[in-house]
Description:
Blueprint: E1 7-11, H1 16-27, E2 34-39, E3 47-50, E4 53-56, E5 58-59, E6 70-73, H2 78-88, E7 92-95, E8 124-126, H3 130-145, E9 148-157, H4 164-178, H5 217-230, E10 236-243, E11 250-258, H6 264-273, E12 277-279, H7 291-294, E13 300-307, E14 314-321, H8 325-341
Parallel strand pairs: 1-2, 1-6, 2-5, 6-7, 7-8, 9-10, 12-13
Antiparallel strand pairs: 3-4, 9-11, 11-14, 13-14
Helix pairs in contact: 1-8, 3-5, 3-6, 3-8
Amino acid sequence: MHAKKPVVAVLGATGAVGQEFIRLMEERDFPYRELKLLASRRSAGKTLTVNGKAYTVEEARPESFAGVDIGLFAGGSISRELAPEAVKRGCVVIDNSSAFRMDPDVPLVIPEVNPEDIAGHKGIIANPNCSTIIMLMALKPIYDLSPITKIVVSTYQAVSGAGKEGIDELKKQVEAYMNGEEPVAEVLPTKSLDKHYPIAFNLLPHIDVFLDNDYSKEEMKLVKETHKILHNDTVAVSPTTVRVPVFRSHAEAVYAETERELSVDEIRKAIAAFPGAQVQDDLAAMEYPMPLYTAEKYDVYVGRIRKDLFNPRAVNLWVSGDQIRKGAALNALQIAEYIIGHAG
């Protein structure tokens, strides 16, 4: 790889995560020598401006990656097909889809949590699921004090987790309600299913598809990805994932049990010192994380930190973070920044 400034391709440049990649590259002054914006045939030909320069979006093909050093893949099923093709051409792929997360040859990385795993990549590095990232950004500082043995987590996931369509659907349904019309549901809980429910003024305890064990695919991602990232499959993770009528930023209620008893003060200090996590926890001042205010932020915010009432080795937390930023595009970009910083 070119020591300082790589040739970078963004796959899925016109989607929600792809657009966030571009915004973050501008904000963070991300170094690149050349930039390619790639998308499906449907979006090819569009013009996007990055750092004041106009780029024409090209249709993504295997040969698009010739001469590319880093591929930022915004997700989707196309990753499975194009990532190996990009790797063949010498490109390091950072993939935001679920395609390679559980592949034993592919590191699954949150740069603040397990950066050492990046070095073992064979061309592809996977970005974890947004809910996993947000949860582990709050839990890793605790885990470092004493290994976590059990996690019970309930998620409150924003509609933008379902892409632009999720955002549009919530907007349209709210407008329909306000105009006294019947809301139309076409996207949520899961677009590929035959049945849909309104998300406006509602909660959906169903993200992705249900599996044979009665947990959803989204819930099992929290279990399997936590095990892989922490290199510890003995952690008992009990998840419930819920879609909520919020545009942006996920929240999670987390119960964590540790091997030894920890004080709230120890936990607070550890989270406050952890890069990318912030303690927002002042009950007297009504200070606690909320999706409306964590949207657009880089960091994951942690509050309502309190000992469990019945188990001295357990703590309850409330966590919120922008799932398009830290939960997706920012995390992937940080992996790319790490690779560039350690090149040569």
